[in-house]
Amino acid sequence: MKKIVLYLILTIFSSKIIAQNWQGKVTYNEIINQKKNTDLGVNNISVNIPRDSIGFSNILFFNNTNSYYVSDSNLINGKPNDNNLDSLLKNSKKIVSGKSISFSIKINPFTDDVGEVFAMDFEKKNLEMRRLVREKGFMSSEPIPAIKWQLLNEEKYFGSLKCQKATANFRGRAYIVWFCPEIPISAGPWKLQGLPGLILDARDTDNDIQFNFESIEIPLKQQVKTTPLKNATGKWIPFDEFKHIWLTENEKANKISNSMRPKGDLGFVKSFENPIETSYE
Known about the structure:
Elements: H1 2-18, E1 24-33, E2 39-42, E3 45-46, E4 53-62, E5 66-71, H2 86-90, E6 93-96, E7 99-102, E8 116-121, E9 126-133, E10 136-143, E11 150-158, E12 161-170, E13 173-180, E14 198-204, E15 209-217, E16 235-236, H3 239-242, H4 245-260
Parallel strand pairs: 10-16
Antiparallel strand pairs: 1-4, 1-15, 2-3, 4-5, 5-8, 6-7, 8-9, 9-10, 11-12, 12-13, 13-14, 14-15
């Protein structure tokens, strides 16, 4: 009998570790406008790559104590919007000094069952995150950032939900968000949070970073199993290192590729990205 009771206790305890009981979810169309990178690194030739945007369909799961923002995961059917890459592919042929130089750019991000995650525990005031770089998972954590929001007397409807406008400067960008006081949960996409209501839509003032509201489901029709990051595959690293992991890992890949290519070969275009965080207060 004692063994049965102990088994039940362990089963209940482990189930709490493995899964959250999510109250609802919001689906966003996240858009990141890319910056130009003109360096081919070959014979001092510069080729302009047009600025473009990459869109992802991402999901925020939430309840009263936790939120879980996930992208690039097998949990999500949405994949990078290839139509947004048309201008990159159409402009992949350039004429330089009377010679035709052809190259192509393909974005096909690696994904797995966990994906890229920003998971917040509001009671512990802790934010855990995971990023996929070169088919590797990297995890880190930081205290949930304190964002100084300014509430404005402006309203906007998203479907039947009435939202209020708020603004703030955060990590090098000025943001405009719309939050819903009718849903008194202090969560939002990515690291945006701290308002008296769920953030349904957000963007920076340059429209480089956008979290466009697509849909909301409360309550969830079916519970979804999300993986706590402590159980996810990957490497835990300090936050100071995590800030720059994308650039660091791509620079390593560039060096390896450049060392292996034949002399005079064009190689490949350096990776380019418009980082969502441009500074850290």
